[in-house]
Specification:
Layout: E1 4-5, E2 8-9, E3 22-24, H1 27-37, E4 46-51, E5 55-56, E6 59-60, E7 65-69, E8 72-81, H2 85-100, H3 105-108, E9 112-116, E10 120-127, E11 130-136, E12 141-148, H4 159-163
Antiparallel strand pairs: 1-2, 3-4, 4-7, 5-6, 7-8, 8-12, 9-10, 10-11, 11-12
């Protein structure tokens, strides 16, 4: 199913998983993600976790994250780095083959495409449950991201929450 990666499924409660399935990020890690990657919590009640199982299609993703709002999973993000162009292309083709098991050929061949200079390309497919993004990055990076529609109903932090860094 495209709305899940491994045992992790969008729109499910963190409490529905066995203990140890998710490792919460420390404040120091949040600070690092914000300063180094520009990734920060955007919604009230939002938390990030490392998933215990970070293997997808036989490949390890040391940069995998699960994001939850009020303990409900709304995003699953797995990022992969290949050592060379041939390996990168083979892995991306493996992902496309995987998607082809669940998406019609017409839909698979017509994603929404977004170019982000200098060298990122996003391929996005929309579904009734949310969207799937394949991020084709530079230097042989590939990210597989699924996001639930529940994010449409998420509350943004108030001005005071932002001022006092409350989530």
């Amino acid at each position: 199913m495209l709305n899940s990666i491994n045992q992790y499924k969008l729109a499910t409660q963190l409490e529905d998983y066995p203990d140890g399935s998710f490792i919460p990020l420390s404040q120091q890690t949040y600070d690092f993600f914000e300063s180094f990657y520009g990734i920060k919590r955007q919604f009230k009640g939002e938390e990030f976790y490392y998933p215990e199982n970070n293997i997808f299609l036989g490949r390890e993703s040391p940069n995998s994250l699960v994001a939850a709002i009020n303990h409900v999973i709304y995003k699953i993000y797995y990022k992969f780095h290949s050592e060379d162009e041939a390996d990168c292309i083979a892995f991306r083709n493996n992902i496309i083959d995987y998607l082809g098991q669940y998406i019609s050929q017409d839909k698979l061949n017509n994603p929404e495409v977004q170019e982000i200079p200098p060298s990122f390309r996003l391929l996005m497919w929309k579904f009734e449950w949310g969207n799937l993004i394949l991020e084709l990055g530079p230097v042989y990076d590939t990210s597989y991201i699924i996001t639930s529609n529940i994010v449409k109903h998420a509350k943004l932090p108030s001005f005071l929450d932002k001022l006092f860094n409350r989530h």
